[in-house]
Automatic annotation (TrEMBL):
Belongs to the bacterial solute-binding protein 1 family. This is ABC transporter substrate-binding protein. It holds the Pfam family SBP_bac_8. It is found in: Cell envelope. Its main location: other. It comes from Hamadaea flava. Residues 1-21 form the signal peptide. Keywords: Signal, Transport. InterPro entries: Bact_solute-bd_prot1 (IPR050490), SBP (IPR006059).
Amino acid sequence: MLSRRHLAAALAAVTVFGLSACGDGDGAAADGQQTVTFWHSMAGANGEAVAYLVDQFNQQHTGKIKVEATYQGKYNDSLTKLKASVQSRQTPNLVQVFEIGTQLMVDTKATVPFAEMASQAGIATDTIEPGIAKYYTIGGKLQSLPFNASAPMLFYNKTAFKNAGLDPAKPPTTMSELAEAAKKLTVSSGGKVTQYGVVASIDGWLVEQMLAAGGVQYCDQDNGRSGRSTSVSWNNDQLRSVVTTWAGLVKDSNLLNVGRNNTDASAAFQAGRAAMLPFTSANLRDIIKGAKFEVGVANYIRPDGTQPSGVFNGGASIWTMAGHPKAQQSAAGEFLKYLASPEAQGYWAAHTGYIPVVTTAAQTKEFTDVLATYPDFAKPGAELRDAAATPPSSGCLMGVMPQARDKMNDVIESVILGKSTADKAITDAQSSMSDVIAAYNKSVGS
């Protein structure tokens, strides 16, 4: 979570960036080669895929452009480093930022909208998946290049469904259906649970997506889409029901609580310790390969008493930092053009499990070959494409979304542990967030 101190420091970019041009030259080396610095937060296999793409681009532009990609740690760590780079007037050309940092990045006034970069570089923005582009579109402009996009899915053990007398072709679609299925899927032996009905990490993202799936707004001002948000909209029956049901499943030993560790949740499902898992599609390939049973992949669940609306993308996008020489910015635009190409996106999706962010990437051989083995790779993208073009299904825009997500974690955890009722936890959290939002808005002059 970003503290207020870190946020205030990041927003200091608004006042200092006008002085932060990175040198007086054109950014070229002695041999005329332009160097483009790219900060990212992809580790492990995802980091290897980034390295491959950078290497391919550099080979194609030998002697003209060289991209230097540097891993900056997890998303929050990278944002902290970005703040320091702005203050020291040494910003990277490009930086990867998670989706909930979108409003914060716009508020810094230290970026060049991707729509402008695309126009200069000849990038066809209409090829970017509309269901993904809508999240990063503010003021009618696509602000950043969607890069690693994911969607929430419900993974389930088809074998366990059959053993419990449930139809694998009809997975749960609502929270109450999930709860009923979890009770039937829970298996005990000798007074010990050997298979939980469901496993879930305490992750505010899961709640954000569940509300969106049912058309419930997360914050006011049309989820921050028609004006700057001034409060979260948590005090509703849908959220109370979700949190109460979640806590009840834990209490009755139908849901395995792994705390805030997403990795543990995925591992428990793959090991067969739980029969269902609400999770990100980013790990789809690993989950299917790691499980020793047939994995079902379904659209995400929604709160009871709601109509299907649709989810929004998770993941991150790539932002262009302002204040660099024009020639260097032009070189950065060429790299963005490459990353938005069908070939690059086809490779990226095939080797990571993320959704191809350009429509034509789905037809590349790299991606179609993967679909032949993992047909469920097509489902996350389809889920986003089918989402309604409404504020709830576009995601909430707030400069303090990192704090909101962490506060939601506190709400869930306090109710699960019996420290508070859902009603009190939600009411108190909403009041607390109002103060945080007000302070942030004041700091950016709104």
